[in-house]
């Protein structure tokens, strides 16, 4: 089974993760909204939320795995942003 076939099996859950990210990062500050879109549309394989969703489903979870997958993306993005700040990178 390919990665895309696996991703297709949980596409609804992954879309729900994206919705949670957008909801949690909704802000009047434009930079915060840009960060949310960067998390969602920034490219990459997004293996972290995929693995959390798959593990949640394997354990029979119904909703908490969506929040956990979003949380993992927040942590990952925070570490990337921190690295950019330390390196003096620009947006």
Automatic annotation (TrEMBL):
Organism this protein belongs to: mine drainage metagenome
A Pfam family in this protein? polyprenyl_synt
Record-linked SUPFAM superfamilies: Terpenoid synthases (SSF48576)
Task: Output the GO biological process annotations, alphabetical, semicolon-separated.
Answer: isoprenoid biosynthetic process
Output the InterPro entries linked to this UniProt entry.
Isoprenoid_synthase_dom_sf, Polyprenyl_synt
Might you give the EC number(s) for this enzyme? 2.5.1.-
Q: Which cofactor does it need?
A: Mg(2+)
What family is this?
Answer: Belongs to the FPP/GGPP synthase family.
Record has Transferase as a keyword: yes
Q: Which GO terms describe its molecular function?
A: metal ion binding; prenyltransferase activity
Q: What class of enzyme is it?
A: transferase
Q: What's the name of the protein?
A: Polyprenyl synthetase
Question: Which UniProt keywords are present, listed alphabetically?
Answer: Magnesium, Metal-binding, Transferase
